[in-house]
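Dear support,

I submitted the protein below through the web form. The confirmation email said the job was done, but the results page showed an empty box. After a refresh the structure appeared. I'm attaching both so you can tell me whether what I see now is the final result or a partial one.
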Amino acid sequence: MPRIPALPTHPIILGALLILLGEALLGIMGGIIKHLSTDLSTQQVVFFRNIAGLIMLLPILMKTGLSELKTKRFHWHLMRALVGLSAMYCYFFVLARMPLAEAFLVKLTSPFFMPLIAYIWLKESIGPNTRWAIIIGFIGVAFILRPGTDSVSYFAIIGLMGAALAALAKVTIRKMGGTESSVAIVFYFGLISAIISAPPAFYAWQEVPDQAWGWILLMGAVATLGQLALTRAYRTAPTGRIGIYVYSSVIYGALMGWLFWGEVPLWTTWLGSAFIIAAGLINIRKPAKKTFKNAKRS
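What the results page shows now:
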């Protein structure tokens, strides 16, 4: 019998493969959201996403126990859920109305907002690499927005707002410190988001086609598996060595958009993506350490 190839053991290779897998799964989630948005409102899709996420958490909770959910910082969980849910509404809204590649690109600007928010809120310093990354990244965003033209993408502006809100949600997690477990953070976000997103979903309720339920369950499954793959990736290898592979989501988005919706990205989108990817590379690059030579001059 032919031997089954073993999984790579080198942490960089394994981490890179896990990121490629995770981004592919989250890309499929984005495609499913776009597909569901033809029959359902954005409010419904957000609600179903949160409910599906909670269901996927149940096996993890059964394994870890309810003691993982103890918290003395519920107010930070509430803030994180409110901000993160707002970001989700923005992201799901633009997924239904923008080409997938552009929607994924705008989402990738979130890391450029994080240092700015952390600087203002947590008084964290911004290194020279990060400053350049922010500048170059937003030049890329300008090409996607196409300001000063008749084709300016107002949907991209909403996506940019969502990216800023997502960055604020991530900085809020950092604000929580080391007292909250990963399970508690994910659970309270899912629970609070599901409760808050329920009234808007029922207000904008549209009849759910029978075939949509399978897509809804698949959306929750690929979203959870994608997050697990990314989490495992960053635990396996350093972020700076494998972080570049998150930009594979743009390729997945462009491919799915072309195959299923006939979307052909504009040249400005490709140019903007080049700037954003370059900014991401600069951002994850460690600053060079200065070396001093004590050589004697003759």
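Response: this is the final, complete result; the empty box was a page-load delay. The radius of gyration is 21 Å.
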